[in-house]
Design goal:
Strand content: 15-25%
CATH architecture of the largest domain: 2-Layer Sandwich
Number of helices: 12
CATH class of the largest domain: Alpha Beta
Distance between the termini: 50 Å
Number of strands: 15
Structural class: alpha/beta
CATH superfamily of the largest domain: Tetrapyrrole methylase, C-terminal domain
Length: 279
Protein backbone atom coordinates (compact mmCIF):
# COMPACT_ATOMS: atom_id res chain seq x y z
CA UNK A 1 0.00 0.00 0.00
CA UNK A 2 1.37 3.42 -0.97
CA UNK A 3 -0.42 6.38 0.61
CA UNK A 4 0.34 9.89 -0.66
CA UNK A 5 -0.20 12.40 2.16
CA UNK A 6 -0.26 16.18 1.87
CA UNK A 7 1.23 17.82 4.95
CA UNK A 8 -0.40 21.23 4.48
CA UNK A 9 1.36 24.57 4.43
CA UNK A 10 3.34 25.41 7.55
CA UNK A 11 4.28 22.99 10.32
CA UNK A 12 3.73 19.52 11.78
CA UNK A 13 0.17 20.51 12.83
CA UNK A 14 -0.95 21.49 9.33
CA UNK A 15 -1.72 17.93 8.29
CA UNK A 16 -5.36 16.80 8.31
CA UNK A 17 -6.58 14.41 11.00
CA UNK A 18 -7.03 11.75 8.31
CA UNK A 19 -3.47 12.27 7.12
CA UNK A 20 -2.10 12.21 10.66
CA UNK A 21 -3.80 8.92 11.40
CA UNK A 22 -2.59 7.33 8.16
CA UNK A 23 0.98 8.49 8.81
CA UNK A 24 0.98 7.10 12.33
CA UNK A 25 -0.31 3.77 11.02
CA UNK A 26 2.36 3.50 8.30
CA UNK A 27 5.24 1.04 8.53
CA UNK A 28 7.64 3.51 6.95
CA UNK A 29 7.57 7.02 5.52
CA UNK A 30 9.33 8.86 2.74
CA UNK A 31 9.16 12.58 1.98
CA UNK A 32 10.36 15.10 -0.56
CA UNK A 33 10.78 18.81 0.08
CA UNK A 34 12.27 20.00 -3.20
CA UNK A 35 8.90 21.13 -4.60
CA UNK A 36 7.99 23.00 -1.41
CA UNK A 37 8.78 22.96 2.30
CA UNK A 38 7.13 23.37 5.66
CA UNK A 39 8.93 26.47 6.88
CA UNK A 40 7.52 26.23 10.39
CA UNK A 41 8.96 22.84 11.28
CA UNK A 42 11.76 20.34 10.67
CA UNK A 43 11.96 16.69 9.74
CA UNK A 44 12.84 15.76 13.31
CA UNK A 45 9.81 17.67 14.61
CA UNK A 46 7.60 15.86 12.10
CA UNK A 47 9.03 12.55 13.24
CA UNK A 48 8.47 13.37 16.91
CA UNK A 49 4.91 14.59 16.29
CA UNK A 50 3.85 11.54 14.32
CA UNK A 51 5.98 8.81 15.87
CA UNK A 52 7.69 7.61 12.71
CA UNK A 53 11.09 7.96 11.06
CA UNK A 54 11.00 9.84 7.75
CA UNK A 55 13.49 9.32 4.92
CA UNK A 56 13.81 12.46 2.81
CA UNK A 57 14.39 11.81 -0.89
CA UNK A 58 15.94 14.17 -3.41
CA UNK A 59 14.45 14.69 -6.87
CA UNK A 60 16.43 11.84 -8.42
CA UNK A 61 15.42 9.52 -5.60
CA UNK A 62 11.74 10.15 -6.33
CA UNK A 63 11.54 10.69 -10.06
CA UNK A 64 14.34 8.47 -11.38
CA UNK A 65 15.11 5.86 -8.74
CA UNK A 66 12.00 5.10 -6.64
CA UNK A 67 12.45 1.32 -6.83
CA UNK A 68 13.10 0.84 -3.12
CA UNK A 69 10.01 2.91 -2.24
CA UNK A 70 7.88 0.76 -4.53
CA UNK A 71 9.41 -2.48 -3.31
CA UNK A 72 8.63 -1.53 0.28
CA UNK A 73 5.05 -0.66 -0.67
CA UNK A 74 4.53 -4.17 -2.10
CA UNK A 75 4.64 -5.67 1.39
CA UNK A 76 4.21 -2.77 3.81
CA UNK A 77 2.09 0.32 4.35
CA UNK A 78 4.28 3.12 3.00
CA UNK A 79 3.50 6.84 3.36
CA UNK A 80 4.86 9.35 0.86
CA UNK A 81 4.80 12.94 2.13
CA UNK A 82 4.97 16.38 0.57
CA UNK A 83 4.12 19.89 1.65
CA UNK A 84 0.77 21.22 0.48
CA UNK A 85 -1.32 18.69 -1.40
CA UNK A 86 0.70 15.71 -2.50
CA UNK A 87 -0.56 15.75 -6.11
CA UNK A 88 -0.69 19.50 -6.79
CA UNK A 89 2.24 21.12 -8.61
CA UNK A 90 4.29 17.94 -8.34
CA UNK A 91 5.26 15.06 -10.61
CA UNK A 92 4.07 12.36 -8.22
CA UNK A 93 1.33 11.09 -10.50
CA UNK A 94 4.20 9.26 -12.21
CA UNK A 95 5.12 7.52 -8.94
CA UNK A 96 1.49 6.56 -8.40
CA UNK A 97 1.25 5.09 -11.89
CA UNK A 98 4.45 3.12 -11.36
CA UNK A 99 2.89 1.66 -8.24
CA UNK A 100 -0.23 0.67 -10.20
CA UNK A 101 1.98 -1.04 -12.79
CA UNK A 102 3.29 -3.24 -9.96
CA UNK A 103 -0.19 -3.97 -8.66
CA UNK A 104 0.33 -1.81 -5.56
CA UNK A 105 -2.77 -0.23 -4.08
CA UNK A 106 -2.54 3.55 -3.69
CA UNK A 107 -4.43 6.19 -1.79
CA UNK A 108 -4.31 10.00 -1.78
CA UNK A 109 -4.96 12.07 1.36
CA UNK A 110 -5.15 15.72 0.46
CA UNK A 111 -3.69 18.72 2.21
CA UNK A 112 -4.30 22.46 2.03
CA UNK A 113 -2.62 24.03 -1.00
CA UNK A 114 -1.01 27.41 -1.58
CA UNK A 115 -3.52 28.04 -4.37
CA UNK A 116 -6.60 27.63 -2.18
CA UNK A 117 -5.01 29.49 0.73
CA UNK A 118 -4.13 32.36 -1.60
CA UNK A 119 -7.71 32.66 -2.76
CA UNK A 120 -8.92 32.62 0.84
CA UNK A 121 -6.41 35.19 2.10
CA UNK A 122 -6.78 37.67 -0.76
CA UNK A 123 -10.54 37.38 -1.26
CA UNK A 124 -10.05 36.63 -4.97
CA UNK A 125 -12.53 34.04 -6.16
CA UNK A 126 -10.93 30.68 -6.87
CA UNK A 127 -12.80 30.05 -10.12
CA UNK A 128 -11.47 33.33 -11.56
CA UNK A 129 -7.84 32.17 -11.55
CA UNK A 130 -6.21 31.11 -14.79
CA UNK A 131 -3.08 29.06 -15.37
CA UNK A 132 -0.35 29.46 -12.73
CA UNK A 133 3.33 29.96 -13.48
CA UNK A 134 6.65 29.75 -11.63
CA UNK A 135 9.17 32.59 -11.70
CA UNK A 136 12.67 31.04 -11.71
CA UNK A 137 15.88 32.52 -10.42
CA UNK A 138 17.70 34.22 -13.32
CA UNK A 139 20.56 31.72 -13.19
CA UNK A 140 18.11 28.80 -13.35
CA UNK A 141 16.65 29.46 -16.81
CA UNK A 142 19.88 30.63 -18.46
CA UNK A 143 18.48 33.46 -20.55
CA UNK A 144 18.15 37.21 -20.35
CA UNK A 145 14.91 38.71 -19.15
CA UNK A 146 11.77 36.94 -18.05
CA UNK A 147 11.15 33.49 -19.54
CA UNK A 148 8.28 33.20 -22.01
CA UNK A 149 6.59 30.67 -19.73
CA UNK A 150 6.03 33.53 -17.28
CA UNK A 151 5.14 36.38 -19.62
CA UNK A 152 2.88 34.26 -21.86
CA UNK A 153 0.94 32.99 -18.85
CA UNK A 154 0.47 36.44 -17.36
CA UNK A 155 -0.45 38.01 -20.70
CA UNK A 156 -2.89 35.24 -21.66
CA UNK A 157 -4.62 35.35 -18.28
CA UNK A 158 -4.89 39.13 -18.37
CA UNK A 159 -6.38 38.98 -21.85
CA UNK A 160 -9.06 36.67 -20.46
CA UNK A 161 -9.61 38.79 -17.34
CA UNK A 162 -8.22 36.05 -15.07
CA UNK A 163 -5.99 36.20 -11.99
CA UNK A 164 -2.49 34.67 -12.08
CA UNK A 165 -0.62 32.93 -9.28
CA UNK A 166 3.13 33.37 -9.69
CA UNK A 167 4.98 30.82 -7.60
CA UNK A 168 8.47 31.94 -6.60
CA UNK A 169 11.44 29.65 -7.16
CA UNK A 170 12.87 27.32 -4.51
CA UNK A 171 16.30 25.76 -4.80
CA UNK A 172 17.09 22.89 -2.43
CA UNK A 173 20.69 22.11 -1.49
CA UNK A 174 22.09 25.60 -1.95
CA UNK A 175 25.88 25.52 -1.53
CA UNK A 176 27.35 28.99 -0.87
CA UNK A 177 30.92 27.65 -1.18
CA UNK A 178 30.63 26.85 -4.90
CA UNK A 179 31.80 29.49 -7.37
CA UNK A 180 28.41 29.62 -9.09
CA UNK A 181 26.51 30.03 -5.85
CA UNK A 182 28.94 32.63 -4.55
CA UNK A 183 27.90 34.75 -7.52
CA UNK A 184 24.28 34.02 -6.78
CA UNK A 185 24.70 35.31 -3.22
CA UNK A 186 26.13 38.56 -4.49
CA UNK A 187 23.20 39.03 -6.83
CA UNK A 188 20.72 39.16 -3.91
CA UNK A 189 18.46 36.71 -5.67
CA UNK A 190 16.61 35.36 -2.70
CA UNK A 191 16.60 34.38 0.96
CA UNK A 192 19.23 31.82 1.96
CA UNK A 193 18.64 29.68 5.02
CA UNK A 194 20.99 27.80 7.29
CA UNK A 195 20.00 24.40 5.98
CA UNK A 196 21.31 25.29 2.51
CA UNK A 197 18.05 26.00 0.71
CA UNK A 198 17.22 29.19 -1.16
CA UNK A 199 13.85 30.87 -1.53
CA UNK A 200 12.95 33.69 -3.87
CA UNK A 201 11.28 36.43 -1.87
CA UNK A 202 8.42 38.54 -3.14
CA UNK A 203 10.46 41.74 -3.38
CA UNK A 204 12.96 39.93 -5.62
CA UNK A 205 10.15 38.43 -7.69
CA UNK A 206 8.51 41.83 -8.08
CA UNK A 207 11.84 43.37 -9.06
CA UNK A 208 12.25 40.77 -11.82
CA UNK A 209 8.70 41.38 -13.05
CA UNK A 210 9.21 45.16 -13.24
CA UNK A 211 11.24 44.58 -16.42
CA UNK A 212 7.96 43.90 -18.24
CA UNK A 213 5.26 45.04 -15.82
CA UNK A 214 6.47 48.02 -13.72
CA UNK A 215 3.00 49.48 -13.14
CA UNK A 216 1.09 46.21 -12.89
CA UNK A 217 -0.56 45.55 -9.53
CA UNK A 218 0.68 42.52 -7.65
CA UNK A 219 -0.43 40.98 -4.37
CA UNK A 220 2.14 39.40 -2.07
CA UNK A 221 1.03 36.41 -0.02
CA UNK A 222 3.63 35.47 2.57
CA UNK A 223 3.61 32.57 5.05
CA UNK A 224 0.19 31.23 4.10
CA UNK A 225 -0.93 28.69 6.68
CA UNK A 226 1.18 30.19 9.44
CA UNK A 227 -0.09 32.14 12.47
CA UNK A 228 1.08 35.40 10.84
CA UNK A 229 0.31 35.40 7.10
CA UNK A 230 0.82 38.65 5.24
CA UNK A 231 -1.15 39.97 2.27
CA UNK A 232 -0.05 43.22 0.64
CA UNK A 233 -0.91 44.82 -2.72
CA UNK A 234 0.89 47.50 -4.73
CA UNK A 235 2.52 47.99 -8.11
CA UNK A 236 5.48 45.75 -8.93
CA UNK A 237 7.80 48.75 -8.68
CA UNK A 238 6.54 49.51 -5.18
CA UNK A 239 6.63 45.88 -4.03
CA UNK A 240 10.23 45.57 -5.19
CA UNK A 241 11.22 48.19 -2.59
CA UNK A 242 9.52 46.47 0.37
CA UNK A 243 10.38 43.61 2.68
CA UNK A 244 7.90 40.86 3.52
CA UNK A 245 9.68 38.79 6.17
CA UNK A 246 10.35 35.09 6.21
CA UNK A 247 9.35 32.79 3.32
CA UNK A 248 7.45 31.17 1.75
CA UNK A 249 6.18 33.95 -0.54
CA UNK A 250 4.20 34.07 -3.77
CA UNK A 251 2.73 36.77 -5.97
CA UNK A 252 -0.76 37.13 -7.40
CA UNK A 253 -1.51 39.32 -10.40
CA UNK A 254 -5.20 40.23 -10.30
CA UNK A 255 -7.16 40.21 -13.53
CA UNK A 256 -10.60 41.76 -13.80
CA UNK A 257 -12.02 42.06 -10.29
CA UNK A 258 -15.61 41.63 -9.25
CA UNK A 259 -16.74 44.46 -6.97
CA UNK A 260 -16.48 42.17 -3.93
CA UNK A 261 -12.97 41.07 -4.94
CA UNK A 262 -11.90 44.70 -5.24
CA UNK A 263 -13.35 45.43 -1.81
CA UNK A 264 -11.38 42.50 -0.40
CA UNK A 265 -8.08 43.63 -1.96
CA UNK A 266 -8.58 47.14 -0.59
CA UNK A 267 -9.54 45.96 2.91
CA UNK A 268 -7.32 42.88 3.26
CA UNK A 269 -4.27 43.85 1.18
CA UNK A 270 -4.22 47.65 1.26
CA UNK A 271 -4.72 47.95 -2.49
CA UNK A 272 -5.38 51.31 -4.15
CA UNK A 273 -8.83 50.83 -5.68
CA UNK A 274 -7.92 53.14 -8.54
CA UNK A 275 -5.23 50.72 -9.72
CA UNK A 276 -7.60 47.73 -9.95
CA UNK A 277 -9.55 46.64 -13.02
CA UNK A 278 -13.05 46.46 -11.54
CA UNK A 279 -15.92 45.08 -13.61
Amino acid sequence: MLTFIGLGLYDERSITVEGRNALRDADRAYAEFYTSKLIGTSVSALEDAHGIEIEVRDRAGVEQHPEDVLEAAEDEHVAFLTAGDTMISTTHVDLRLRAHDRGIETRVIHGVTAQTATSSLTGLQNYRFGKATTLPFPYAHGADGLPASVTDTIDDNRADGLHTVVYLDIKVGYDPTSSQNAKRSGDNVGRERAEGDEYMTADVGADLLTAEYPDLVGVVVARAGSPDPLVEAATMTELAERSFGDPLHLLVIPGECHLLEADALVELAGADRGTLDVV
